[in-house]
Amino acid sequence: MFLPTTLKEVRALGWDCLDVILFTGDAYVDHPAFGAAVVGRLLEAEGYRVAIVPQPNWRDDLRDFTKLGAPRLFFGVSGGAMDSMVNHYTANLRLRHDDAYTPGGKAGFRPDRAVAVYTRILKRLFPHTPVVAGGIEASLRRLAHYDYWSDTVMPSILADSGADLLIYGMGEGVVQQVARAMRNGYNAKLLRKIRQVAFLADSGYVDRLDPGTTIRLHSYEECARDDRAFGENFTVIETQSNLMEPVHTLVEPTGDRFVVVNPPLATLSTEELDRSFDLPYERAPHPRYAGKGDIPAWEMIKFSVNLHRGCFGGCSFCTISAHQGKFVHSRSERSILAEVERIARMPGFKGCLSDVGGPSANMYGLGGRDRTLCAKCRRPSCLHPKKCPNLDDDHRPLMELYAKIRAVKGIRKAFIGSGIRYDLFDGGDYLRTVLRHHTSGRLKVAPEHTEDRVLRLMRKPPFALFERLNDDFRRICREEGLPYQLIPYFISSHPGCTETDMRSLAQKVLGRLHFTLEQVQDLTPTPMTLSSVMFRTGENPYTREPVYVARSQDEKRRQKSYFFRERPGERGRRIRAGARPDGGTRSEAMPRSESGIGAADRPKSGAGPDAAGRKRKKKTSRR
Asked: Which helix or strand (DSSP H or E) is residue 15 part of?
């Protein structure tokens, strides 16, 4: 049974009131890859009466916001599984013409900055009912941030939207605590004790905080006028978000109030993560969408399985660690295999899992050998500038899990469509296993660039590792008799990348290595990433090293011109064929998940068939 979305459905359940009403910018798909469904099911399992209002109309008489009345506890608001601004605009700031999270892929069913728009409407209509913001869009805007689309530093979304509380990161462990704290009405004292929440407070509250566990950031106003202050704030925020045992509360003055961000919860246990995935999802779109067309995001992931959360890669352009965290927490084999068995029984399943992966597919079960050393670590990445000697990179447990998945009755193929970190290979048989059993012909990886200076700013490994992968790939394919292709992806216009660097990239990749590239993706500087800070400030905030930034669209086009030169009339033909005017393709408008995506608007890497492999804006994990 689906969670109700209308008053008729609520009454059919015999309910006379609701405890929580969730508003989301996505269509309602009852599946663990869609955040609103997960939150709704978690609260339902605790005995709360929950309804979902998907993609409410914000431009008419606002009946979608009033049709269910006011909930007993709170409204929950999310922009959806994908940031609404990335959803709407290309890296060249052109309006997209489709939305992968809407029936028929139609655009126009959510506003720009959806969290703020929905929240303002709810606070105007129901001023006495608390609104709790969450999801990727709210999470990455919890403090002052650079907004690429307006080219300004914007204040916390709390100040901009008027939300009473913000849950950042993956919210399973938090939303139930918030609901319990509101059982007897809005209790600010209880809510402000919960970890992994943010809220606005006055000076009296801030003055009472323990100075030993409080970090005062530069104010929003100072960040807006001083790039150096903005960069300093970022280094503190990123460092604190990557700690295993964070204890500090962050305080950022904004106007006459203060944004207070409590430290995050500890990493979810395997049992807690399993519980989230084991809930009784219908694993399908709500029946209200019958006859309205397929939901592309759902079609892409309905036969896929997420193995774990978190990523310790720490790429400068990626939002995964900022939202999910650096430390990987993995599901049990029991939970994973049970989900595979459920998928094998689904109508329309023909034996092929489209993806068995996660934010980075080959990080399942990996982490520090000595966790006490991890507790002291302040690095944003376990792989950059070089692999941590404490990192356990043994891929054998993952390969054993792959074998068990392949052995499930009804499974013919289990492809890996999530990103694979080739700088994590342990020297074993992982690559051979992937090529023999989990690739349909095209292994997609993302070296991102060739030039060492640019790669260091990206926090990516040296290009020599890709060249080694290329050699190993060709050798294994030759030995196994596999006519496969290696497909590399690259980023243009990243801070630090000049036109000369792109020329060198073209010479090495197109010339010496003889690759034919499908796509070079312009960077989209998304909030709360090192890349966005460098794009705004023109310097590395950690070293204060000046960094060249290609800001104008003309500079961006010149960087890509070394790969995609148009003949006369080609632009018109591409547009008529469905390609984007800025040189991309339809595949760049495919979905991401609420867990956070690489900010370059494209996958970190990937493997899999054309139909099931990772697309340019596809999610890198499953929440």
From this structure: none
Rounded-to-integer distance, Cα 590 and Cα 489, Å: 16
CA torsion sign for 486, 609, 606, 342 is negative
For 137, half-sphere exposure in the C-beta direction (CA atoms, 13 angstrom radius) is 31
- Cβ contact 133:622 at 8 Å: no
Residues in the chain with pLDDT values less than 70: 565-623
pLDDT of residue 419: 86
Angle of helix 396-406 relative to helix 333-344, nearest 10 degrees, comes to 30
C-alpha–C-alpha distance, residues 45 and 42, integer Å: 5
DSSP conformation letters of 87-110: HHB-TT-PBPSB-TTSGGGBS-SS
Q: State the pTM of this model.
A: 0.90
- Whole-number pLDDT of residue 172: 87
For residue 573, which amino acid is it? R
Cα(325)–Cα(240) distance, rounded to whole angstroms?
A: 11
- The answer to whether the CB of 2 falls within 8 A of the CB of 11 is no
Instruction: Please state the length of the chain.
Output: 623
- As a three-state string, the secondary structure of 261-320 is ECCCCCCCCHHHHHHHHCCCCCCEECHHHCCCCCCHHHHHHCCEEECEECCCCCCCCECH
Could you tell me if 601 and 86 are in contact, meaning their C-beta atoms sit under 8 angstroms apart? Answer: yes
pLDDT at 582: 31
Concatenated DSSP letters of 580-609: -TTS--GGGG----TT--BTTTS-S-EES-
pLDDT attached to residue 568: 39
CB 335 within 8 A of CB 278: yes
Question: At 55, which amino acid appears?
Answer: Q
Q: What is the DSSP string of 120-177?
A: HHHHHH-TTS-EEEEHHHHHTTSS-EEETTTTEEE--HHHHH--SEEE-S--HHHHHH
Q: Provide the pLDDT for residue 343.
A: 97
Quick check: helix, strand or coil at residue 86? helix
In angstroms, rounded to a whole number, what is the distance separating the alpha carbons of residues 113 and 79?
7
Q: What are phi and psi of 111, to 5 degrees?
A: -85, 165
What is the C-alpha to C-alpha distance for residues 66 and 52, in angstroms, rounded to an integer? 13
List, as own/partner pairs, every contact residues 439-442 make where C-beta atoms lie below 8 angstroms and the sequence separation is at least 24, other chains included. Answer: 439/415, 439/484, 439/607, 439/608, 440/413, 440/415, 440/608, 440/609, 440/610, 440/612, 440/613, 441/483, 441/484, 441/485, 441/609, 442/484, 442/485, 442/486, 442/487, 442/607, 442/608, 442/609, 442/610, 442/613
Q: Mind listing the pLDDT tens digit for each residue in 9-34?
A: 999 999 999 999 999 999 999 999 99
User: At a CB cut-off of 8 Å and minimum separation 6, what does 393 contact?
Assistant: 366, 387, 424, 425, 426
Structure-block tokens of residue 42: 């978690």
Sign of CA dihedral 553, 459, 220, 526: positive
**Residue that the structure tokens 């609420």 belong to:** 594
Please state the three-class secondary structure of 365-401 as a single string: CCEECCHHHHHHCCCCCCCCCCCCCCEECCCHHHHHH
Tokens of 600: 């370059």
**Pair of tokens at residue 604:** 């970190």
Terminus-to-terminus CA distance in the chain, angstroms?
A: 21
Q: How far apart are CA 590 and CA 87, in angstroms?
A: 9
pLDDT in tens, 502-545: 999 999 999 999 998 877 899 999 999 999 999 999 999 999 99
Q: For residue 397, with 0-12 CB atoms within 10 Å meaning exposed, 13-18 middle and 19 or more buried, which class applies? A: middle
